[in-house]
Write the structure tokens for this entry.
Amino acid sequence: MALLSGLVPVPPEITPESSVFDLKQRLDWGEPALTIVDVRDREAFNYSRITGAISIPLEQLAASAPTSFESDRDIYVYGANDDETASAFNLLKEMGFQNVAKLIGGMEAWQAAGYPLEKVVV
């Protein structure tokens, strides 16, 4: 975490490829101006997801994004794999969203780091 003028801690800036550690650091800082988008299918999302993520399946992203996000909002996106994540990232960038990050490793990396998940308990 960087310090603004050496006094006030600020979170790392969003980068096109972000690790789960980058996102966790932003969340721990308490940064409210970000959105985590899970583009996996609803069944996978309903089973488990990164805490605070919203579900917009990849096939619905183009229709939903313009009314769901401000173009300058920081958006972290992840899918079932890095290819799906990259597809969602590219689509959002083509639509004019400026601050988009691919969450490298997605759910697997998040789980491997031991970070919190929301899960359906059966």
Notes: Helices lie at 20-29, 42-47, 58-68, 82-94, 106-112. The mean pLDDT is 89.
